[in-house]
Amino acid sequence: MSRLLLPTPDKATLPVLVLPGVLTLPGLMAPLLIEQPLQLAAVERAASEHGPLALFWGRQGTDLDHLPSIGVSARIVRLIRLPAGPIQLIVQGIARVRFISVVSRDPVPTLLIQTLEPPNADLSANPLREAVLNSMRVVAALSPTIPEEMVIVAANATDAGELADIVGASIELKPQERQQVLDEIDPLKRLELALQFCEEKRTYLEVSRKIQEEVSGRAGKTQREYLLREQLRAIQRELGELEPQEAEVNELRRQAEARHLPAEVKDEADRELARLAQINPASPEHAVIRTRLDWILSLPWEDPPPSTIDLDRARAVLDADHYGLDKVKERIIEFLAITRLRSGPHGPILCFVGPPGVGKTSLGQSIARALGRPFVRASLGGMRDEAEIRGHRRTYVGAMPGRIVEGMRKAGQRNPVFMLDEVDKLAVGFQGDPAAALLEVLDPAQNHAFTDHYLDLPYDLSLVFFICTANVLDPVPPALRDRMEVIELPGYMEQEKLQIARRHLLPRQMAEHALPDGSVVFTNQILVALVRGWTVEAGVRQLERALASCCRKVATRRARGDQQMVTIVEPQLTEWLGPPIEGTVLEEAESVGAATGLAWTVAGGEILTIEASLVPGSGQLTLTGHMGEVMQESARAAITYARSRAAELGLPADLFKSSDVHVHVPAGAVPKDGPSAGIALATALVSAATRRPVNRRWAMTGEVTLRGHVLPVGGIKEKVLAAHRVGVEGVILPRRNARDLVDIPAEIRQAIRFELVDDMDQVLAIALKRVTTPTPAPAVAAEPEPVAARSVQTVAR
Predict the structure, then answer these.
(1) What global pTM score does this model have?
(2) Nearest alpha-carbon partner for 744 in 777, 722, 767
């Protein structure tokens, strides 16, 4: 802080008092109690000499080595010796003094000081004076420690330094802040500093007053509410009425008595009701207890009314809601028959596995309708927290029961048809494994006492008809899969899609779009064209969207006043739905180094083109087309088989050592994996090596061993449907897959030739064209022509 060095009178030696705070400022008086021996000696010296004292701020009363440079000289106005020895003083500040050196420490602490004489600063025309006075008036009004007389004294001050000292001594300041006022020699700067401290004090006092008023207001309001509430209770007692909390508890107790709860649940409900009656409604615990009681009382605890499963009605409902799926319906009827004989679903849990849109969820709804039970569905896709199944513990904020208890409350009965959708899409997170939590739900040996963490009470799930759905069975954990009876739903054939569209999809879309019967006509030819050109799927979901799009166009016409019947023609499909989808097609009848494979995908069967080429090199193998590990192993096994059969195939012994082999599956951005493409890979490789063209009109599926044996694969029906869709002549299958041909519709078995094989020699005899003289592989193999491939995520089986 800047200081003005002014001419001063001669130096003086004064006894010193080191005080724990700045006691006074020049021109002001303050009381003082002296008890320490050295301080008593200093006071006695000043009193005997009728001289002043030097007052300095110090943290210890005997420490003369760490004093501030500026202190105050003060004269003794009154001195009173108390009986016990202390001295009570009233001192008045005289002037600021500068500390020069220590003269004596004992018996009387004495300092050499220099008196400072600051210049005068007149305030008659200075606006700073009014600002300081206004601020001090507010502080005096808010503070109980500042007497009104100090405001009058400050108003009578004409010098800036004098006014600053009055303000600095009057308001409550920390010792460091008051020392800053003392250190400032310049009167105007000192006054500005005093104004700053005064404004800070004013802000502090105003905020404190506001907080005090708010607290007092709330306390007063609480007291008034308490008195009014007591009066209300007295009035209600006189009228024979109950207070709201007591009435609420009595109503909950009446509901608990009417529900016929199990003994353990009844005891817990009574205990919670007793706690609820004692807790203040404003307490957070009150809401937790009340919410738990609501869940307990809203769950179905009573045994359901006895019912008999009518198998004929169940089959009639399934036939009315779904076309085809005869084996699936038969398996469901068998399951219901066993349930009827055992008086409850104590066997395995049904699990419908199939591509999207084949009717898994609607089958569950039909079963519920056939049994006369409520239907509840819970989607498990993406779930990674086991609390979603078992519920959250009540210690967490926002805790709620799990999906199982929530579904049971929604059902309102203990025996609903409960569908757990997408069990193959469960995930494992740091919150636990939901699949492990489902084991307790689906295990008949455990679910009679399922315990949700939120309710913390056993709940009987043994009467629930659980049905699970999945697109693919592989991601389902083995322990969970072991508790389920898997029923596979294959994709629909073209004729089945036609009938489903005619019987179910089109009537539903016409009703949803407010189209009366006969307002729009879809011929069978148009429906077939719609299936072939605008839908590529195993189910019928995309087909229903296409029908909905057509119905919207017709509805728009009718809304504009055109009430004529509309007969859909193919040009309208192109106009409304865009160009037809170009599916996988065979653009060539035969080619060298390219074979037609069959694959299974989550959307049904798919044609898979496999290309192989030999180029001069050092025997390296290149695999492209985003092939998975299983498919890469099949490619290596096919090369080993071709090398082992080089002599029989008429190939040079060192062909594969002097040539690089490149195997490619088009649509490289689409992942492909599985054991279905082994014989197709081997056929493409042998064709590229021998230059014998492959008959592309023959599709094939199967795995190959190093010795050339053909092993069976899965998904035969979906693969054959895909082959029929693109117009192949025949399909080569492993002989051990002959039993799967029973599932192929008769019309497709008549349209396609099937060849059952045991080894690769039989495959090559069927798929490769015969040539009179084997042609060795050229130096650089020609690249096969590109084959159109639809972008479908292929997971070959």
Answers:
(1) 0.61
(2) 722
